[in-house]
């Protein structure tokens, strides 16, 4: 479905990714790790349903698993807060895509994976989210899928600073933001398979 995606990983790249993943597992808190695994499973389901190629699915699987890898650089006292986060806490958290991109770049992950990590909080239309730049950047299709899977899981999930939202609120939010924050194609695919998606993330 999504043409022009050169994501094929050779064995060396795959080995590097596995070693990298061990580093990630040691550096990330348990809540982020469990969230990342659910986002990977859901993103791969959406990607398969949308008939991505095997190369695209390879990049999506790695990128979705590692999308929040930059959170290992956010102080634990912020990630473990049980009270609402302050503006400066959010400033710190909003840097995680850039931290993650820098780490992925250092260990040599490919551009498709790095783009997922860097842009998973950027809006589909490029007009909101983060990180923003002077020029308009719109996330690619693999990032669009990761973004929907990420928000779907994160909003339903209990966080230390707030309980999970009810399903109807999450569905309304995705509906309202379809075409601006989220890809309409990805949202429609999720809604067409909502029961299966909930099962995949254990809800
Ligand atoms: Fe994130
Ligand atoms: Fe996330």
Report on the architecture of this protein:
The protein has 203 residues and is an all-alpha fold. It has one domain (11-200): Hypothetical protein af1432, CATH 1.10.3210.10. The protein is 61% helix and 0% strand. It has helices spanning 11-27, 30-49, 54-65, 76-79, 87-93, 96-106, 111-119, 141-156, 167-177, 184-192, 194-200. α2 (30-49) packs antiparallel against α3, α3 packs across α8 (141-156) and α7 crosses α8. The longest helix has 20 residues, at 30-49. The two termini are 29 Å apart. Mean pLDDT is 90; it is low at 1-7.
Mean pLDDT: 90
State the CATH class: Mainly Alpha
Number of strands: 0
Tally of contiguous helical segments? 11
Report the bound ligands by name, code or SMILES: fe (ii) ion
One letter per element, helices H and strands E, the order comes to: HHHHHHHHHHH
Say what the CATH topology is.
Hypothetical protein af1432
Spatial extent as radius of gyration: 16 Å
CATH homologous superfamily? Answer: Hypothetical protein af1432
Total domain modules? 1
By helix and strand content, what is the structural category?
mainly alpha
Which terms would index this structure?
mainly alpha; binds fe (ii) ion; 203 residues; Hypothetical protein af1432; 61% helix
């Amino acid at each position: 479905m999504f043409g022009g995606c050169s994501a094929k990983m050779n064995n060396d790249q795959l080995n590097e990714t596995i070693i990298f993943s061990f580093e990630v597992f040691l550096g990330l808190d348990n809540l982020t790790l469990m969230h990342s695994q659910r986002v990977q499973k859901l993103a791969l389901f959406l990607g398969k349903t949308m008939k991505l190629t095997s190369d695209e699915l390879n990049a999506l699987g790695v990128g979705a698993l590692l999308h929040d890898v930059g959170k290992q650089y956010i102080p634990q006292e912020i990630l473990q807060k049980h009270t609402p986060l302050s503006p400066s806490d959010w400033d710190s958290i909003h840097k995680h895509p850039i931290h993650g991109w820098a780490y992925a770049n250092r260990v040599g992950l490919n551009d498709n994976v790095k783009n997922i990590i860097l842009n998973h909080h950027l809006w589909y239309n490029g007009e909101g989210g983060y990180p923003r730049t002077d020029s308009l950047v719109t996330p690619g299709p693999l990032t669009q899928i990761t973004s929907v899977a990420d928000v779907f899981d994160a909003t339903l999930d209990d966080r230390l600073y707030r309980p999970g939202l009810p399903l109807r609120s999450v569905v309304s939010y995705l509906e309202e933001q379809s075409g601006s924050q989220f890809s309409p194609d990805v949202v429609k695919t999720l809604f067409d398979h909502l029961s299966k998606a909930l099962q995949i993330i254990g809800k």
